[in-house]
Specification:
Length: 247
């Protein structure tokens, strides 16, 4: 039986600017047991450099999905992990990055996981980062932290492969990962709670983002998120009832 080491991993390239890099990326996927590629932007799969540099991984290239935006590319994805070279300071909650070494074993998580990589020149935009559950960074020299796209994909997949690749086919788990829709539901109830609190205006989006960061790094199951949603929903109801009494 042919072993696919990471059957639930999907690599997503957002706005790749060099067709040759796409070809090299497909080789990295084949090297490290990942077999699904999604591309946001122009369809350059038939470009001569993309085809030439994909070599024996051309099937991954030919089967790659093409999408207009990252939101569309993440349909059917349960967790999205964004690669970023731009770490924020301690007060920047939107740039709180997880080190590559702290990413968990993808095979220990149910559901489909996307590794999202940005443009060669500018990386991912803030609004694209916000669609992902967490952002992680690849260790590199402070003098030149930006990696070539295909190199970044290779480093990440090599780390996951060398750390977590199974020797036997992956067995399904009874613990289903929380879906994107389930996490969005608890976010909406939490946002409602925050909106009712007497917080300074500039603190409101920060509080909401911190909650998203925590859940994104928690790798919660559907049952866990369902329980949390019930609790946060009840808190929302209590807060709203209290506000009505005050009014």
């Amino acid at each position: 039986m042919y072993l696919v080491e990471f059957p639930n991993l999907v690599v997503v390239l957002v706005g790749p600017e060099n067709p040759g890099n796409i070809g090299f990326v497909t080789r990295a996927l084949a090297n490290f047991g990942v077999h699904e590629l999604r591309i946001v932007g122009e369809d350059t799969r038939q470009d001569q450099f993309a085809q030439m540099f994909s070599v024996h991984a051309h099937k991954i290239l030919d089967n790659a999905g093409i999408f207009d935006d990252l939101g569309s590319a993440l349909v059917g994805i349960d967790l999205a992990w964004a690669a970023s070279a731009r770490a924020g300071r301690n007060h920047s909650v939107t740039r709180a990055l997880v080190p590559l070494a702290e990413l968990p074993d993808p095979n220990s998580l149910e559901g489909r996981i996307a590794l999202v990589f940005g443009r060669e020149s500018t990386g991912l935009f803030n609004e694209e980062m916000e669609l992902c559950d967490l952002a992680f960074t690849i260790p590199s020299s402070k003098d030149y932290p930006s990696l070539n796209l295909s190199h970044a994909v290779s480093v990440v997949l090599h780390h996951l492969f060398s750390t977590y690749a199974p020797e036997e086919p992956r067995l399904p788990s009874e613990a289903r990962a929380a879906t994107y829709q389930e996490r969005e539901q608890v976010y909406r109830f939490f946002d409602d709670v925050v909106d009712q609190l007497r917080l300074k205006e500039h603190r409101i989006p920060i509080a909401k983002q911190v909650f998203r960061n925590l859940l994104g790094r928690a790798y919660m199951t559907g049952r866990e998120v369902s329980t949390l949603t019930g609790v946060v929903r009840r808190i929302s109801e209590v807060v709203n009832d209290s506000k009505k009494l005050e009014d």
